[in-house]
Amino acid sequence: MLIGVSPYISPELLTALHRMGHGDEIVLSDSFFPGDTFSQRVIRADGIGIPDLLNGILRLINIDDFVSDPVIMMEAVPGDSLDPEVEKAYRAEIDRHWPATPPIRRIERYAFYERARQAYAVVVTGQRVKYGNIILKKGVVPVAE
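Below the sequence we write its predicted structure tokens.
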């Protein structure tokens, strides 16, 4: 373990976060997401919820503030509904670390899948909720003057 690094952040995830460049995206998926179908770089975080991972990750990286939609979630398919508590829990963690982040943008299911294919990595979590997947775009790390 490292001082200041959440115990929810595995060595593999820490390495991925470090290797990501600004503008790279990472998917935090619910346990139902077909991660291996969409990515060559799948990191397992079984048993860990996305809010806990967001809290750990957002201590280590910032969200891109050069784009209008740096945080993406999947919208409900026609005839289905979202649980607003899911987004609320995610937003609480985002606001804890990066409160100026724009609202979470919702995109259509297959557009989300296509975006996931382009992501740097997919982290398959233990989150067990419908539409629990979220994409974060990493920002430019501030440099001390």
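The mean pLDDT is 95.
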